[in-house]
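Re: the request from the purification team.
They wanted to know what the chain is likely to look like in 3D before they choose a buffer screen. I agreed to run a prediction and write the result into the notebook, where they can find it.
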Amino acid sequence: MATMRAALLGAVVLLCALRHGGAQRYEAIYSFGDSISDTGNLCVGGCPSWLTTGQSPYGETFFKRPTGRCSDGRVIVDFLAEHFGLPLLPASKAGGDFKKGANMAIIGATTMDFGFFQSIGLSDKIWNNGPLDTQIQWFRKLLPSACGKDCKRHLSKSLFVVGEFGGNDYNAALFSGRSMADVRGYVPRVVSHIVRGLENMIRLGAMDVVVPGVLPIGCFPIYLTLYGTSNAGDYDGDGCLKSYNELSTHHNSLLRRSLGNLQKTYPRTRIMYADFYAQVIQMIRAPQNFGLKYGLKVCCGAGGQGKYNYNNKARCGMSGASACSDPQNYLIWDGIHLTEAAYRSIANGWLKGPYCSPRILH
């Protein structure tokens, strides 16, 4: 009887483990994106001197030095790799062994290529470093070393994280003075380009794909400082700029609908929408629920200047800026990127829910 009870208990434990992802494993993680997820592509061979995010105090919390990550420490893909017992993702441009994953993400990446920005008269306003199509080319080039002749099987057992994409496309236009109506007009083209990129990866063999939406840009101190107004009606109840957040929600709703259609086209693929927007809004509203103290205040900024501790002429990594001594209490690291503490929480929200639909662990 006791033996049977023990066997039943063992079966229940195993079932729970399977349901909660205890037995879920990936052979590799392949990541694509921009500064939210770059783990060093722009800093291969050393960070360029003009790159503020390549200077101290970036990286101080975990790596004790700048690594090219736009944070005080690890980013989301680092925490995903750690969860699945994989090494931190190497930057694809660094070369090496990619059998357990690679990161194609690079600071400044856009969804659209140079031709698009040329067509809308913005070619002189952006530095386009590795747009989505280029990152897919980098990925194709490393495949022989990652999986040889068995790529379909290997990629079907790997996790793909594609994005976020779109943030820099909109930044390029907004920071160049384009109207919000103009920028909203670009959204369908940006989203359809993301979906085309996803189709390319699925055809190569990707089966588990996480696709994050864009962040609530109207809540970031860089936007709040550059585009702040004296009109209370321009702000929502969280202290964020309404029209900028409406751009983000427009992108995300279109992306979500497009992913639903893509899922129908490729029913065997598991397409997961990661809701960056909803989680960051919750972290601003109630930072304490995520182990944080501060919502819209910047950790690495201009020594207490202004409402958000942000000065665009003394950004983190520039002279005149300094980092707080307790980044673990902050959501926002430098005015546009998040802290390691925030990224850990977001990774958890994607793995276990409720901020990824369906959640990564199944």
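For the purification team: The CA atoms of residues 155 and 206 lie 5 Å apart.
Please add any questions underneath this entry.
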